[in-house]
Amino acid sequence: MGLDSVELLCEVESYFQVAIPDPLAESIATVGELAAAVTQLRGLLPAGNRTAAHARLLDQVLRCLQAGFPAATAATPLTQLGLLESGQPVRQQLADCLSLKLPPVPAPPVFSTPGWLYRLLGTDYVAPAQPHWTRATLPDFIDWLLAAHYRVLLPAPATLYEVQRAVIGLTADKCGLPIVEIQLTDRFTSDLGID
């Protein structure tokens, strides 16, 4: 474990008031594994399903969006609502309505025509995939909000799902990556750059 991972581990232990034994800490490689370890050590519910905190916040977001998007539902893609574009007025309106700062979303990468790569590789050329968050819906957005504001919205995580949101928030704070880019399957070293 490097200095960054030890610092993150100390922050997680402090936030959750738990001591993670060294052998267990050495075996943790992903964000999800860290959340599962904390959940087990705290004796919390191992339920990974979204909780009442998620449902309440989703209802609040839908009410806030009602004026500009009366047909919005939980299945509405964020791209249709303009929530993935930083300059959209809907983001500021929603932030004001919720009294929360919305998590930043990086601009989706723009892939031009393959050009020389396609000519070089021919039919073996595979275009890069869009990031997972470009296909997100409102429940995903609520996950990000809970992770971004875990200290306020999840002051006492009681389930695996809530611990996962808090661990993602703590990880984002530590590594400086946008919350939307951190997944439970991400490895701390190779995916997030935490040594």
Description:
The protein is mainly alpha-helical. The chain is built from ten helices and no strands. The longest helix is centred in the C-terminal third of the chain and has 16 residues, at 160-175. It is flat and about 50 Å long. The protein starts with a helix and ends in a 20-residue tail after the last helix. The model has no long low-confidence stretch (mean pLDDT 89).
Write the layout of secondary structure elements.
Layout: H1 3-16, H2 22-27, H3 31-42, H4 52-65, H5 78-81, H6 89-98, H7 116-121, H8 138-148, H9 150-153, H10 160-175
Count of DSSP strands: 0
Query: Can you tell me the overall shape?
Result: flat
- Helical region count? 10
H-E order:
HHHHHHHHHH
Radius of gyration: 19 Å
What is the percentage of strand-forming residues? under 5%
Quaternary structure classification: single chain
Key attributes of the depicted protein:
10 helices; 50% helix; mainly alpha; 195 residues; flat
Précis, in short:
With about 200 residues, this protein is mostly helical.
